[in-house]
Amino acid sequence: MIRAIKTRPPSLVMLACALGLCSSIAIAHHSRTEFDQNKTIEITGTLTEVLWQNPHVKLKLKSVQAGHEVTWDIECHSVGILSRTDVDPKLLKVGDQVKVAGNPSKVSTGRMFANNLLTSAGRELVMAPHVTPRWNKVAEGTGPAKLALASSQTTVPVGIFHVWNSSFEDPTTTPFALWSGPMQLTASAKKALAEWDPVHETVARDCIPKGMPTIMEQPYGMQFEDRGKTIVLRLEEYDTVRTIHMSDGLPVATTRSLLGYSVGHWDGTTLVVNTTGISWKYIAPSGLPQGSASSMVERFTPTQDNKRLEYTITITDPETFTTPAVLKRAWVWQPGERVQKYGCGSKDVTH
Predict the structure, then answer these.
(1) Global pTM?
(2) Is residue 179 over pLDDT 50?
(3) DSSP string of 35-97, one letter each residue
(4) Residue 199 domain-assigned?
């Protein structure tokens, strides 16, 4: 059974990124652009498959519609997101009769993105941050859990060499904050954006690792490790590892790669990182192109209380920007947070 319901889109699904004078571009993570976030439907049926995996947990649901049996493909947020909001995969069992509410696909029948799920035992699971319970007054997955701001009752580590995380309680520390800064685009960049197909392009690259600077939007844990002559930055998404070569010289890239070649130095407590030689073809996951001569300077600055890490990235790319783009976001320190295994596509990711 399927039922359509009018709804407003989730508040953190998209943000506008100001480009030039009045133009804007929608930024979406992974394949959310495939789904109509202005429309919500409800489906009742039997779970036939549960894949607890990154980048998206996936469900299959058999439902009877107009007298015919239909199998629905249902996408959910990642293991990293759902585990941090305490959604228990043990509550999703093959053979159970469940109800799911979510956003239908714009291009394919029988596909949706789940926001709420009601189990056969009557327990509701909220499947996305900042989505409210739909059927029950109390639901699992609604608490900020480890996505909350750092506790003031725990000793805060000093400096940057520990784990930092996004927080959906603060708009400046969400992944989307990175793309909210002004960008002055060249004519060729505007043309590339006009030709971008967000539905098919984002779906096609689910398990293809991101390069710089796109990877810095990732919503999970990241950790700085001091290795002496290098600093290693571990990012949970796609199990990414960035190596920062500590030197007073300018970066020299002998080959091109997704993450480029990074050289860092200290400016007081701020880690300054220069990166060149990037082969990743995008600036942002919106299809904003990245030119071959793109270079960037990042500044990671812990606040005085060490609870936030302020981030500024200045991107110089003459093929894409008429003037360098200065983008900002932040991360927070959270007690007990760690960089988890991502294992994209693996069906046995457990946290």
Answers:
(1) 0.83
(2) yes
(3) B-TTEEEEEEEEEEEEE--SS--EEEEEEEETTEEEEEEEE---HHHHHHTT--GGG--TT-E
(4) yes
